[in-house]
Amino acid sequence: MRERIARLMMGRNGVDHFARFTSIAACVMLLLSVLSRRVELLSNLFWILGLALLFYSYFRAFSRNIYQRQRENARYLQFQRKVTGFFAVRRDMWRQRKQYRFFKCPSCKATLRVPRGKGKIRVVCRKCGNAFETKT
Ligand SMILES: [Zn+2]
Predict the structure, then answer these.
(1) How far is the CA of 44 from the centre of ligand 1 (A)?
(2) Cα(82) to centroid of ligand 1, in Å?
(3) Domain span at residue 126?
(4) How far is the CA of 62 from the centre of ligand 1 (A)?
(5) Predicted pLDDT at 1
(6) Global pTM?
(7) Whether residue 106 is found in the same domain as residue 90
(8) Which long-range contacts (CB under 8 A, 24 or more apart) does 56-59 make?
């Protein structure tokens, strides 16, 4: 049985990160469809979306156009890194909120960090070199 599956998947894309994401999203949609069954339109919408995502996951896993599928996967991973990076920065800012004050550079909008409790200080933005005074 295992050998037969291995032979079936030969030369095909298989389950990559993006396929894992779309199949989880499909499960969430199908679950939402069941949970929202009292609102028929909404339930049908989730059902159709869930099935579409499920078929898309299978389509990608069995696809022989590996080059194109890998490009999609790379784009997905790039997007995923951006999202996780965004939240990692927010989490770090939250953890350091007692020691540091965060604010945006008025000129280039870069996020700056200064130690708290130093009174009024002159800040020079590392990104654009803009200098200004602020309270800590
Ligand atoms: Zn700046």
Answers:
(1) 49
(2) 21
(3) 98-136
(4) 49
(5) 84
(6) 0.74
(7) no
(8) 56/22, 57/15, 57/19, 57/22, 57/23, 57/26
